[in-house]
Amino acid sequence: MKKFLFASLLVAASSMALAKLPALSDEAKAKAAEAAAKAAWTGKVEAYLLCKSQDKVAASYYKTAKASGKETKPPMAAPACADPGPFAYTPPEAKPLEAAGAHSPAGTATSPPNTKLPDANGNPAKKP
Hints:
This protein is an all-alpha fold and 128 residues long. The protein has helices at 2-17, 26-68, 106-110, 119-122.
């Protein structure tokens, strides 16, 4: 009886794991894009703060080393700390379906697709 119960629970759990989630709505996609942008900005801010603290520690080290008479090597050249500024997110503009190029190319849309030439002249048959 316990084996049957365990097997049925295992089948139920595996069927739930295989269930398909519904597609995300446009609002959820926009929120996810904004969250990704915010996470990227947070990473830049953290890198900036780390850079500033490393500069402060290095300056303190050189100051105390010179005061105590220790010989120091010149610091390695490093890029300046870049402040990412305040967080600003502008969502991308959504193009209407017609402007997105979902239909025929612009050349076909502006002129009729037919010509006065017979099809045999425009599309000659391939010879075997």
